[in-house]
Design brief:
The chain is an alpha+beta fold. The chain folds into two domains: 9-190, no CATH class; 211-346, Porin (Beta Barrel). Helices cover 19% and strands 35% of the residues. The protein contains six helices and 23 strands. Strands 11, 12, 13, 14, 15, 16, 17, 18, 20 and 21 form a ten-stranded antiparallel beta sheet that branches. Strand 5 and strand 6 form a beta hairpin. Residues 1-20 form the signal peptide. This is V-type proton ATPase subunit S1. GO terms for molecular function: ATPase activator activity.
Length: 399
C-alpha cells in the first residue's frame, strides 16, 4: 500500500491539468493494505478508483463519503485569518491517508460499489442534517453519503470549507465510537476551478444598429438619427427614397423616411466644404434647421469631429431638433455610385496641435540659450590692463 507520507502543503504541489470531470479524492480511516500501484499525481479513471476503493473497504466497514458541490486541489492551500490551514482535521490524518489529486466520476464509482439497500443519502443544509445518521446495529458494512450543501450568505469559501472540516471531524469521531472500523472519503461532484460545460440563454439589451447611407454624391454614417419635436423624440431609421441635386458649388441631398424628409444642404468654398443646414419636411410643415456647431471639412475629406451633431430651428414658435449620433459624412458635389467610400477623416485637429507648439517653444528657448552662450564666448577679451607698452617684450624661443 502506498500512503501519502508527505506534509500537507505538498498536496498542493501535486496539481495536474484536470478536465471538467476530474476532482481530488482524500481517503483515510481504517484502511486495508492496498498493494497495487498507486499514483497520487496522475489522472485516474472511474474504474481505477473503484478498484482502489473496493480494496480499502471491507464487508464490516462503515464508509462515510463527504461530497462537496465543488472541490479542487487549490482549495487545500487555503488559509484562515490566523494563517493556518482550514483543513486542520484532515491535516492531522495525512500520515495514514490516500490522496488522489485527479479522479474521474468519483460518485459513479462509489455507487457501483455501494449496496443500495445498505446506503444512506443525507444532506447537510443550513438547517442541519436532513436526517440523523442511524447507528449500525447489525455489524454489516454500509455506505453513508453526505452532500455538503449548506453554503451561507456572506460566507467566504475558506470559511465554508473550514466549517466542513470541523463537521467531518465530529461525524467521523461519532461513527468511530459506534463502529470499530470506519473509512472516510472526501471528494466532490465538480472541480471548483473548472466549470462544467453548460448551456444557458441570457436576455441582453438590443445592440444599436448603425446605418451607412450610400447616396449619389454623398456618403453618410450614423449610429442613429433622431428628430425631436418638443418632448417627442422619433427615430429615423427606415430610408425609403433618396435623391441629390448639384449646382457647381452646392449640393442638396434628400433623404426620405416614411412621412419625414430631410434635405441636407452643402456648400464648398476656399478648399473646404460646409454642412450649412437641413430642410425638414414633416407633412405640410417645412422648417430650416441650422447646426449648433459649425460642420465642415477639407475637400475630399470626411467629417469626423464630434460624436453628436444637432440641427435646430432658430427663433421659431415650434422647436425641432435633428440629432445625428456618431456622425461621419462626406459630400462629393458630383454624381457617384452608392458604393463610393469615405475619404480620409478630418478630426478638427489643426496641423499645429498643442504638443507640437510646446515642442517648438522648447526648441526655440534652447536655441536662444545656445545663441546667447556663443555671443558671450565671442565677447571674451584678454586682460592687458597691467602690460607696460615701453617695457621689453618677453620673447620665448622654441627650438
Amino acid at each position: 500500500m502506498a500512503f501519502c507520507r508527505v506534509v500537507f502543503p505538498l498536496l498542493v504541489l501535486s496539481i495536474v491539468s484536470c478536465s471538467a470531470s476530474f476532482v481530488p479524492v482524500y481517503i483515510w480511516g481504517d484502511l486495508a493494505k492496498y498493494s497495487g500501484p498507486l499514483d497520487s499525481v496522475s489522472q485516474l479513471s472511474s474504474s481505477e478508483f473503484r478498484q482502489i476503493l473496493k480494496h480499502e473497504v471491507s464487508a464490516d466497514t462503515d464508509t462515510v463519503v463527504f461530497v462537496e458541490d465543488t472541490l479542487s486541489v487549490e482549495d487545500f492551500s487555503l488559509k484562515n485569518s490566523d494563517g493556518e490551514s482550514i483543513f486542520s482535521y484532515l491535516h492531522s490524518t495525512v500520515a495514514d491517508a490516500i490522496y488522489l489529486s485527479s479522479v474521474s466520476n468519483t460518485l459513479k464509482a462509489i455507487d457501483q460499489i455501494a449496496d443500495p439497500s445498505e446506503t444512506d443519502h443525507i444532506k447537510l443544509t443550513e438547517n442541519g442534517l436532513s436526517e440523523e445518521i442511524s447507528p449500525n446495529s447489525d455489524g454489516k458494512g454500509r455506505f453513508v453519503v453526505i452532500r455538503l450543501v449548506d453554503a451561507r450568505e456572506g460566507e467566504s469559501r475558506a470559511e465554508m470549507l473550514e466549517r466542513h472540516d470541523q463537521f467531518i471531524q465530529e461525524t467521523v469521531t461519532k461513527m468511530q465510537k459506534e463502529n470499530a472500523k470506519v473509512v472516510a472519503v472526501y471528494t466532490a461532484e465538480y472541480p471548483s476551478y473548472t466549470i462544467p460545460k453548460t448551456y444557458s440563454r441570457t436576455r441582453r439589451a438590443a445592440e444599436a444598429n448603425p446605418m451607412t447611407y450610400g447616396v449619389s454624391g454623398l456618403r453618410l454614417y450614423a449610429a442613429s438619427i433622431e428628430l425631436k419635436d418638443g418632448n417627442t423624440t422619433t427615430p429615423l431609421s427606415v430610408l425609403s427614397a433618396t435623391s441629390s441635386e448639384f449646382n457647381g458649388t452646392t449640393q442638396n441631398t434628400t433623404l426620405t423616411f416614411d412621412t419625414t424628409s430631410l434635405v441636407l444642404n452643402f456648400n464648398k468654398k476656399g478648399g473646404y466644404w460646409f454642412f450649412d443646414s437641413v430642410t425638414l419636411n414633416v407633412g405640410a410643415v417645412s422648417e430650416e434647421l441650422h447646426p449648433n456647431d459649425e460642420v465642415f471639412a477639407i475637400l475630399d475629406f470626411s467629417y469626423r469631429c464630434q460624436q453628436h451633431i444637432s440641427f435646430s430651428t432658430v427663433n421659431e414658435t415650434r422647436a425641432y431638433t435633428l440629432s445625428f449620433n456618431d456622425l461621419k459624412i462626406q459630400p462629393f458635389f458630383t454624381e457617384t455610385n452608392t458604393t463610393q467610400q469615405f475619404g480620409d477623416s478630418f478630426n478638427c485637429v489643426g496641423f499645429f496641435s498643442a504638443p507640437i507648439w510646446a515642442g517648438l517653444l522648447v526648441v526655440f528657448i534652447l536655441l536662444l540659450i545656445t545663441f546667447y552662450g556663443i555671443m558671450m564666448m565671442l565677447d571674451i577679451r584678454t586682460m592687458d590692463r597691467f602690460d607696460d607698452p615701453k617695457g621689453k617684450t618677453i620673447t620665448i624661443n622654441s627650438e
